[in-house]
Write a structure and sequence with these properties.
single chain; Serine Threonine Protein Phosphatase 5, Tetratricopeptide repeat; 5-stranded mixed β-sheet; 5 strands; extended
Length: about 675
């Protein structure tokens, strides 16, 4: 349970100094000048005043700046106004101000402030959760800082990109961005960037399960803290101690985790400087204590943390607190409270549209309400699949944005080179006095020819892209047709065959029981009709029910077989198999193989006895299906669509099929599938 929502414990911890936050860029300069602009800026930064008054003073300062000439001081003052809007959470006016300073910087060819404006725009889109735009602006700033050889700001910008990728669960991309940041400051004294980099790497490795690396980098983060560079108010040490504790929680080493959380809580002025971190440490300490069966201070520590987070409106923190309380009361056998806290957490995550938290709430409810587990699990799978698709697409978009910006940079470099070469050529021609009419005419013809060649090349590329796209579409269409055919054949035809056999047999009976059975089979036909409709509506997924309660679903398949056909069926399923550890793909394909095998036996084998055994041997699942039917010659028999589907699905699981059969001696099919 803990791993599912662990990301939410640390999301608040990695954005300590950089990324999408300027909350700590509050300027503490006390301006005593009578100059109205300075006075307005000072009053706009007075947090003892109301937000309305601060916004009013900041607006007055902006109006004065707009009337001034566009010089370096003007742009500095615009950034000061933007910072104040950021600290007020006034995103609309913040964006307007940054756009203005970017426009002024571009017109003045002020590369430093252009790059700074792009980082501010990246921060803005980050707060608005528009990740693509944020990434694009950070990338633009990165290119300029790289060109200016400003290693410090280049590293900071790459860290901002790393945080952005991390927030979208693009952990590998985030890891690469951090190492790129570390590479440019290698050998320089930049402890704040070192700390942020090591801290983020520790969090990333914790998320992907590389706990040894996570511990290593969190220790590096702790050792890199320099109080002269990173202010004590940031509580960096408490942050890293909390992150270390989370790693040990994931390792189920709660005694060690408890030590780190306690050390974090002992940091001076923590409850004043970073009350949200204080509440987080309280919650995490209480959670580890509950896992160690320690009752002192519980559940009061949970309640205290929840009260703080509720007062600060930290929705993710509130969610985690309630999930922890649910686990705590579940361990105390207080099911009512456990369910109530889980449902409150789930309702909060839905209301705030935090779908990752929704997954955590559903998983907890599935554990404490086993009777409704299938319902919760079905919703969990649906949401999880959607989120994975979105996250994968976002990672691809980030990669595409980087590629496109690199292409633009390459094209600009190429144009610069071409222009320089043209200058050399024309200078040489001027010196040699060869500017004649004939040469000019020839150059014009050459340019026309180059243009035609480029145009022809562009047309060829467009044509090739169209052909490639058409081939891709056609390939997908063919693949989808085959998939639908397999689904209809595996999931529907077998059931229709059984219903048809029984309806034929009922035609020979004319009494009240026959009518009742016909009605039952008509109901079954309606169910089949619904299956066909579901397949038609959603061609992109297998039935999610196969993933949930796999053994129960297989038992239902066997019960339907026993009711419909005369063959005696004996099934043995190894109770030691941990189905929750078996991948969904393997479970789906095993179920379809069982359906296909039973259908083939019913149609062709005329068997009296069927035996199905599913067991685990070392790191393999073995499915053995045997019957005492008429059998067939394995070497000469044609491989129909049913047998082809069995082979196809086994191959999708990286498994092997062994078929033994002789005429009159029955058939034995053995499927061996590797599992982790």
């Amino acid at each position: 349970m803990k791993k599912t929502y662990n990301i939410y414990k640390v999301l608040l911890l990695v954005f300590v100094l950089f990324g999408c936050s300027k909350k700590n860029e509050i300027e503490n300069n006390v301006i005593t000048s009578k100059d109205s602009l300075s006075s307005y800026l000072t009053l706009a930064n007075d947090f003892q005043s109301t937000r309305e008054k601060r916004e009013q003073f900041n607006r007055k300062a902006l109006n004065i700046i707009k009337l001034q000439s566009n010089d370096s001081l003007n742009r500095v003052n615009l950034f000061r106004v933007a910072n104040r809007y950021y600290n007020m959470d006034n995103w609309k006016d913040f964006k307007i101000t940054v756009d203005l300073v970017l426009e002024n910087s571009v017109s003045s060819k002020d590369s430093v402030n252009i790059a700074k404006a792009y980082t501010y725009l990246g921060d803005y889109y980050c707060t608005q959760t528009i990740s693509e735009s944020a990434f694009l602006n950070y990338s633009n700033a990165e290119k300029i800082y790289d060109k200016l050889d400003d290693t410090y700001n280049l590293a900071k910008t790459r860290l901002s990109k790393a945080y952005l990728r991390y927030g979208e669960n693009d952990f590998s991309g985030s890891e690469l961005e951090v190492f790129d940041a570390l590479r440019v400051i290698k050998g320089e004294k930049a402890n704040d960037i070192l700390y942020e980099s090591y801290n983020l790497l520790g969090v990333i490795y914790n998320e992907i399960g590389e706990y040894d690396n996570a511990i290593t980098y969190h220790k590096k983060a702790l050792s890199s803290i320099d109080d002269n560079v990173i202010a004590l108010q940031f509580q960096s040490k408490a942050t890293s101690l909390n992150n270390m504790g989370l790693v040990y929680q994931n390792l189920n080493e709660h005694k060690q985790a408890k030590i780190y959380f306690q050390q974090g809580l002992e940091q001076q002025n923590l409850s004043i400087d970073k009350v949200s971190l204080y509440a987080m440490l309280l919650d995490n300490l209480a959670y580890s204590k509950s896992k160690l069966k320690e009752t002192d201070g519980l559940p009061d520590m949970f309640y205290k943390s929840l009260k703080i987070r509720d007062s600060l409106k930290l929705t993710t923190g509130i969610f985690l607190n309630k999930i922890h309380l649910s686990e705590y009361f579940a361990s105390k056998k207080d099911t009512v409270k456990a369910i109530n806290y889980s449902k409150e957490a789930l309702e909060l995550s839905r209301r705030t549209k935090n779908f990752r938290n929704v997954l955590g709430g559903l998983k907890q409810l599935a554990i404490i309400e086993p009777k409704k587990a299938s319902v919760y699990t079905k919703e969990y799978i649906h949401i999880n699949d959607s989120l994975q698709k979105v996250e994968r697409n976002m990672g691809e978009k980030f990669t595409r944005i980087e590629y496109e910006t690199d292409q633009i940079k390459s094209e600009n470099t190429s144009l610069t080179t071409q222009n320089r070469n043209l200058v050399f050529i024309f200078s040489g021609l001027a010196m040699l006095g060869l500017f004649t009419f004939v040469i000019k005419t020839q150059k014009a013809k050459n340019r026309e020819l180059q243009f035609k060649q480029q145009q022809q090349k562009a047309n060829e590329e467009i044509y090739n892209l169209m052909i490639s796209q058409q081939n891709t579409i056609e390939g997908i269409r063919i693949k989808e047709k085959k998939r639908v055919a397999r689904e209809l054949h595996d999931g529907v035809l077998g059931r229709m065959f059984g219903v048809r056999i029984n309806l034929d047999s009922l035609n020979k009976i004319d009494d009240g029981t026959a009518v009742e059975k016909r009605n039952n089979y008509l109901t079954e036909l309606k169910s089949i009709e619904q299956d066909i409709r579901e397949i038609s509506h959603d061609l992109n997924r297998e039935k999610s029910e196969l993933i949930n309660n796999f053994v129960a679903i297989v038992d239902n398949l066997f019960e339907d077989q026993k009711k419909t056909f005369k063959s005696k069926l004996v099934s043995i399923i190894d109770s030691g198999i941990k189905w929750e550890l078996v991948s969904n793909s393997v479970k789906i394909n095993l179920y379809r193989i069982l359906q296909e095998a039973l259908q083939n036996i019913n149609k062709y084998a005329t068997a009296d006895n069927i035996k199905i055994e599913l067991k685990k041997e070392e790191d393999h699942l073995i499915l053995m299906m045997s019957d005492d039917g008429i059998g067939f010659n394995v070497k000469t028999a044609k491989k129909g669509i049913g047998l082809q589907n069995i082979l196809f699905r086994t191959n999708e699981c990286d498994g092997v099929v062994d078929i033994k059969s002789k005429k009159g001696e029955g058939t034995i099919i053995t499927i061996t599938v590797p599992i982790e």
